[in-house]
């Protein structure tokens, strides 16, 4: 039991460090304990343990306000690979030993080498069996020997899993990668390979996905190591013409940078990995060639789902160029799924919390593609779809976000024209100047633009009036930008407050939410409150559970917003549950669960409520205030309104 407890404690230390790095400010032991589901005393012990990771600098600082990251926090996070002598270290060494030797390992010899009992190694081998689940590999045990049975490609996937197990999601630690494959490839050579590969792919006319490049470098290093040890891949099936150029590039770089000559099977396999995981056509000629090779069934499925998403969420994404680019991504996604490749997307969590509406559209698209193409789509793949969707939506939103402005600039000759030119140049992406007033005594009351930028004193103070200089300064630009942000936020939150007053109900509020039944238990508990009100039926509850299984609706560290993808509620309503202490949800813990049921008639309000509700609960201080003081429905609404009003 002790090793298991050690692993749990170590994982919670890492989770604590991650929370503090994300917070980047002071946080109390009580707040951190609630986020981890432990006691404040445990937090203090975790901090002590974290500070032993670097003998020369603090990993976590302590003070009257609680804890915050110290100067050694980042290095301590990167150093968290696999400590010598831990169960995790033994697991990795056992796997590498069986991968390196066709005859496997002798249990008693490895026990002596690692200074543990054979019974401990037997327990570790049981964990190896769990690790092999779904990998087309089997662990065979005969007397004192243990070995792996399976094809070379499956063995490499296992090495890739070990590498990812040692690296934090989204990070690229070359030293960890080197250890994962046995240490045969130097850090300097791996770093040079990465730079040369990105440069070479760019020269070939591709855009390179830097978020996925670490995974590809891991595959190349693993392939080079296995080939050098006498375990090459057999010939792979032929690929598209674009793979030929990439294959030649990889063969040259692996030879030059790593000193390994790859066989035809390895070259083709790695070229297909690059083509399906890390590049998109950068030049029009590349794009035209690759689009001509798209599977019509994939294009049709993407077009159908995108058009449905555009209608369901009232977003302008149903454009041919977007559909073709997304279809190319989905076709590559299918290749990755068939190969059992799990992508890593370091922005998935951030996209979910910062752009919940965009992520929700991506979930809708992914769900539709799952149904039509029969391929499960994991959370990190949804994150990449969200990046495509977000790029398209943001292009269309740019003009919608412009605030109108009037310039008041009495002056001499062409002074007002120079000022307008400066404003357009410096602030053109945020505001649109629709009128220039050159009189000394303008009719201030008749100016109805969002902002008034004036070089003279206005008679009435207002948040939309910004005093600027006749010759625009950097300070003027900063003040106008700040005013624009305040106005946009104020309008959004005012709309949210009005919507919440309509959608929240006293009969759909629970204080002391029980999380023992997991996410589904909470959804059923809140769902029954809405069913009892006649807002939804049991089918809506079932669809909400389906949506939750696809991707966690914990959009912040404190808030989950379970809901169905289709807006089929009889009327719009929100059931709220408060958990104090927090309850497990997805990969983290939450204090507030808001089950949202929207009807078709409120389709336009969905974006506002969804995005701004998540925004309110993204600020830890606000969440703690609401949880602490929202003891019943009236006080919850009062605290929520106070937070919204700032």
TrEMBL record:
Keywords: Activator, Repeat, Sugar transport, Transcription, Transcription regulation, Transport. Residues 293-399 form the PRD domain. Gene3D superfamilies: Mannitol-specific EII, Chain A (3.40.930.10), PRD domain (1.10.1790.10), Winged helix-like DNA-binding domain superfamily/Winged helix DNA-binding domain (1.10.10.10). SUPFAM superfamilies: Phoshotransferase/anion transport protein, PTS-regulatory domain, PRD. It comes from the Bacteria. Residues 502-643 form the PTS EIIA type-2 domain. It holds the Pfam family PTS_EIIA_2. This is PTS sugar transporter subunit IIA. It comes from Microbacterium rhizosphaerae.
């Amino acid at each position: 039991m002790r090793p298991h407890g050690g692993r749990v404690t170590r994982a919670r230390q890492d989770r604590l460090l991650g929370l503090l790095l994300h917070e980047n400010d002071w946080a109390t032991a009580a707040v951190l304990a609630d986020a981890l589901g432990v006691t404040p005393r445990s937090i203090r012990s975790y901090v002590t343990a974290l500070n032993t990771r670097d003998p020369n600098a603090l990993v976590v600082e302590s003070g009257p306000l609680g804890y915050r990251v110290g100067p050694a926090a980042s290095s301590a996070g990167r150093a968290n690979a696999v400590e010598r002598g831990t169960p995790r270290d033994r697991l990795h060494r056992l796997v590498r030993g069986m991968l390196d030797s066709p005859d496997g390992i002798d249990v008693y010899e490895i026990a002596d080498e690692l200074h543990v009992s054979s019974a401990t190694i037997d327990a570790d081998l049981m964990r190896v069996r769990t690790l092999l689940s779904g990998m087309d590999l089997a662990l065979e045990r005969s007397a004192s020997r243990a070995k792996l049975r399976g094809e070379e490609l499956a063995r490499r996937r296992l090495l890739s899993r070990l590498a990812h197990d040692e690296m934090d999601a989204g990070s690229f630690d070359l030293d960890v990668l080197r250890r994962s494959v046995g240490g045969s490839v130097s850090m300097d050579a791996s770093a040079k390979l990465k730079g040369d590969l990105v440069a070479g792919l760019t020269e070939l006319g591709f855009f390179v996905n830097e978020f996925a490049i670490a995974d590809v470098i891991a595959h190349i290093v693993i392939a080079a190591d296995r080939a050098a040890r006498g375990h090459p891949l057999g010939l792979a099936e032929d690929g598209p013409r674009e793979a030929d150029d990439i294959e030649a590039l990889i063969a040259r770089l692996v030879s030059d940078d790593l000193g390994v000559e790859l066989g035809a099977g390895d070259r083709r396999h790695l070229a297909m990995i690059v083509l399906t995981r890390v590049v998109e056509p950068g030049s029009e000629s590349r794009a035209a060639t690759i689009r001509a090779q798209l599977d019509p069934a994939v294009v049709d499925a993407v077009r159908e789902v995108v058009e449905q998403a555009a209608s369901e969420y009232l977003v302008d994404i149903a454009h041919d160029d977007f559909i073709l680019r997304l279809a190319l991504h989905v076709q590559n996604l299918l290749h990755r799924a068939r190969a059992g490749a799990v992508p890593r997307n370091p922005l998935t969590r951030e996209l979910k919390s910062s752009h919940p509406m965009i992520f929700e559209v991506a979930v809708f698209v992914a769900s539709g593609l799952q149904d039509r193409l029969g391929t499960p789509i994991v959370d990190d793949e949804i994150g990449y779809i969200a990046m495509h969707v977000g790029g398209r939506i943001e292009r269309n939103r740019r003009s919608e976000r412009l605030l109108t402005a009037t310039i008041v600039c009495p002056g001499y000759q062409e002074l007002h024209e120079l000022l307008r030119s400066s404003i357009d140049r410096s602030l053109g992406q945020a505001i649109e100047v629709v009128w220039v007033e050159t009189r000394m005594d303008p009719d201030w009351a008749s100016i109805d633009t969002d902002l008034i930028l004036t070089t003279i004193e206005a008679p009435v103070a207002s948040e939309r009036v910004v005093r600027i200089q006749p010759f625009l300064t950097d300070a003027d630009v900063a003040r106008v930008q700040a005013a624009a942000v305040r106005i946009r936020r104020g309008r959004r939150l005012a709309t949210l407050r009005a919507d919440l007053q309509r959608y929240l109900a006293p009969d759909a509020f629970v204080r002391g939410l029980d999380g023992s039944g997991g996410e589904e238990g909470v959804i059923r508990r809140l769902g029954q409150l809405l069913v009892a009100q006649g807002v939804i039926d049991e089918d809506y509850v079932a669809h909400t559970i389906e949506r939750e299984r696809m991707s966690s609706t914990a959009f912040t560290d404190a808030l989950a917003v379970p809901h169905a993808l289709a807006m089929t509620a009889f009327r719009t309503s929100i059931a709220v549950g408060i958990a104090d202490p927090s309850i497990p949800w997805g990969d983290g813990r939450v204090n507030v669960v808001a089950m949202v049921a929207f009807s078709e008639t409120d389709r336009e309000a969905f974006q506002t409520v969804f995005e701004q509700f998540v925004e309110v609960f993204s600020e830890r201080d606000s969440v703690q205030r609401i949880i602490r003081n929202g003891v019943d429905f009236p006080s919850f609404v009062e605290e929520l309104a106070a937070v919204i009003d700032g």
